[in-house]
Amino acid sequence: MTRALLTPVLRTLPWRALAAGGATALLLAGIPRMLSGAPDPWLGLLALRGAALALALGLAFLLDDPARHITSAVPVRRPLRVGLRVALAVPGAALCWTAAVFLVPEEARPPVGALTLEAIATAVFALAAAALIIQRSTVTEPGVAVSTSLLSTAAAAFLLLPDGWALLVTPDDPRWTDTHERWAMLLVVALVVGARGCVEPLRAGLRLRPF
Amino acid sequence: MSTVLETPARAVEPAHPARPWAAVFALARFEARELRMTVSFVGIAALYIAWIVWQSTRSEGDYPVLQDVDRATQSMPLLMGLAVMLGVNRAVLRSHRCDTDRHFDVLVVEPWRRTVAHVLSVVPAVLFTAVCVLVQFTWAALKPGAVGNGSPAELAVGPLTVLLFGVVGVLLARLFRSVFAAPVILVLLLFGMLFVAPSSGSNWTSWLGPVVTESGSSPFPSDLLGRPAGWHVLYLVGLVLLAALVAVLLSGGRTTVVKVAVAGSLALTLVGAVGQSSGTPAGSTPARDRATNAPEKVQSCLKRGGSTYCAFPEWTGRTADWAEVVDRVQNLAGGSAGGERLTVRQRIDATYGLETDTLISPSTTPGQVTVGTDWGGNRVPEFAAAVASVLVAGNEKAGSTVCDARMVTIMWLALGGESDPMTALRNVRLDDSVSGSAIVLSPTESMSMSAEQTRIVVDLLKKPRYSVAGKVKAKWTELTSPKTSTARVAELLGVPAADKSAAKAEADGDSCQE
C-alpha cells in the first residue's frame, strides 16, 4: 500500500514552495561568503538562523494538498499519509541544511550542533502546526497560515522575549547552554503536538478556524 | 394575415449615476474585516496592547524622556506590519487560490480598482497602530516625571511602517501569483536589511530600512539628537505611494495619471533618501561638543536649599527630585559637610552620537556632583553614592578613587536615608549582591568596596537610622580621614569586629591595591 502511495504523494508534494524555501536558505547562508572583508561570526550566526527560518517556511507548506478531501477516503491512516510526506521531504531538507552550514565560512561558523537543534525545532514547530490545523479544521492548505504565524512568532521572539527567556543569543553569551536546553524543550513540545496532530480524530472535537 | 408588431426602441439607462468607487469602498471594508479576523493579526494586536501596558506600568519607566519614548514606539509596529503584510497578500491572492479570478471578469469593478480596495483595507490596521502609538506616548507624557519633547515625525514612523508593509503585500501579490512568495521574500528582505545595514548603524544604508532605532547612550537633549526624522517620514511616504501606484499599474490601471504619479512618488522617495543620508547635521556636532565640554553655557541653574542645580533646559523640572536626594544624604553627614553648598551639574557625553555609551569622567571641581539624564530606579542610589563621595572626599575625582575605610561612611550616607536600604544596596552594586567585594556604580566612574566594608555597611543598614546617625556625626572627622583603618571604623560605629583572618585580609586590602 505504501509503495502504491509513493508515486502519487511524490507528485503532489508542493515542490515549488519547498524549492523556494531551500533556495532562500542557501542564498541567505551564502551571503557571508559574498560579502568582502574578514568573516564575521555574528553574520555567520545570522545567516544560519535565516537559513533555518527559510527552510522551516518551505516545510510549512509540506502538508498542503488541494485534493485532501478526495484522498482522505483512501484506506491508509493519517499517520502514514503525513509520515510519508515528511519522510520524502526530510532528506532534501537535511541536504539543504548541510549545504547551508558548509556555505558559511569556517571562521564565522557558529557551533553547528546547537544551530542544528534550533533549525530542527523550528522546522518541527512548523510541521506540527500544519498537522494540527489539518486535523482540527477542514482547511486543505494550511501552509499560508503556518508560515504567517511562524514568521510572526520568530519576529516576536526576536523583539520581545525577556532576558530570562531569551532564545536567540550569541555563542559568547553565558546563557548559550540554557537557551539550548530551552530549544530542546521546545523541540520535545513540538514533537508531542505534531504526533498528536497526526492521529486520526475519532470525534469532532474543538474545531479551529485558522483564517 | 400578418401582424406587424413594432416594439419601440428603448434606450436602457441606469437608474442611478455610476458610482464606481462605492464598490471599492465596500470591498475595502470587507477586506479590512477579513484582515482583522485572521489569527495572526488578532494575536499580534493583543501582544502589542499587552506590551504597551507592560512598558508603561513598569517602574523603570517612571521618569520617561520623551525624545526617546517617541523612538521606542517604532519597533513593535514592525510586528504588526508583518502580520498585515502577509494577511493582505493572502487576501489579494484569494481569488487566484480559489480559482475565482474568471468570475471577476464579468464584474464592473476593474482589477486596478480591486487593487486600490486592497490597499485601502490596510487603513484600519494603520489607524489602530496610530492609536496604540499615541496611547503609549501620551501615557509616558502624562507621568509626573516626564521630561523632554516628542517629535511628530518619529511618532509617524510606526503607523507608516504598517502602511508600507501592507502596501508591499499587495504589490508582491500582483508581482508573484503564489502564496509562498510573500513570506520567502519577507525573510529575504528582513535578513538582507540586517546584513547590509544593521538597524543600529548610523551610515546612510541603515536609514533605507523602515525603522532606525538608535539606542545605547543615555538620553540626549532633543536639539542634539540630529536624526533626520522628517526626511525619513518623507522617504516612507514616497515608498508607500510608489508601491501602491506600481501595484495599480501592474493590475491594469495604465493611465497617464498613474504613470505621472509613479514618477512623482519615485522622485519623492529619492528626495527623502538623499535628505536622510546626509549624516549628522552640520549644526549638531558643535552643539554636541558644547554640551559635552562646556555644559554651563547651555544650562540654567536653580538654587534649592543650600545647593545649586544646573540642568539642560528640558530637565529643569527634575531638579526637585535631585534636591530631595541631596538633602537626604546631607542630613546624615556631620561636620562642615552637613552644610556644604554643593553644585549638582547634569553632564552627558554626546561626542560619539546616540549609539555609544560613554563613561563621563569625574569632575575635579570641589563640591560638584554629576548627574546623568536618566533618573528613577537604580539611578537614584547611584546619584546618592556620588553625593556622599563628594561630601566625604571633597570632589568626585577623589571620591571615585576612595578604597579605604571611608567607603563605609560613603555607602552609609548614600543609603542610610533610603526607605529600603538593602534593596538600594543591591541595586547600586554591579553584581546585585549584598556580601563580598563589589563595584559600586555612580553617574561617573565606579567605586569599589571590599568584603569587610560590605559586611559593616550591611550591619549598619540593619540598625535603626538614628542610632548610627549620632555616631557618624560625632566621629565625623575620624571617619572621613583616609588614615583610619576599617577595623577602627567598625569599632567607632559599634559594629562587632570580624574574625582574625578576615581582618588580616582586610588590612592588606586597605592599601588600595587591586
Write out key terms for the chains shown.
heterodimer, A: 211 residues, mainly alpha, globular, B: 514 residues, Neutral Protease, domain 2, 4-stranded mixed beta sheet, two-stranded antiparallel ribbon, 56% helix
In short:
Chain A is 69% helix and 0% strand. Chain A is mainly alpha-helical.
Give the CA-based shape of chain A: globular
Number of domains of chain A: 1
Could you tell me the number of beta strands of chain A?
Answer: 0
Q: What fraction of the residues of chain A are assigned to beta strands by DSSP?
A: under 5%
Helix content of chain A: 55-70%
Distance between the termini of chain A: 34 Å
Largest sheet: spatial strand order of chain B: 1-2-3-4
Q: With helices defined by DSSP (H or I, 4 residues minimum), what is the helix count of chain B? A: 23
Detailed description of the structure:
- The complex is a heterodimer of chains A (211) and B (514).
- Chain A has eight helices and no strands.
- In chain A, 38% of the residues are buried.
- Chain A is 69% helix and 0% strand.
- Chain A is mainly alpha-helical and 211 residues long.
- Chain A has one domain.
- In chain A, helix 1 crosses helix 5, helix 3 runs antiparallel to helix 5 and helix 6 runs parallel beside helix 8.
- With 514 residues, chain B is mostly helical.
- Chain B folds into two domains: 262 residues, no CATH class; 214 residues, Orthogonal Bundle (Neutral Protease, domain 2).
- Chain B has 23 helices and six strands.
- Chain B starts with 19 loop residues before the first helix and ends in a 5-residue tail after the last helix.
- The relative contact order of chain B is 0.07.
- The mean pLDDT of chain B is 86.
- At the A-B interface, helix 2, helix 3 and helix 7 of A face helix 2, helix 4 and helix 10 of B.
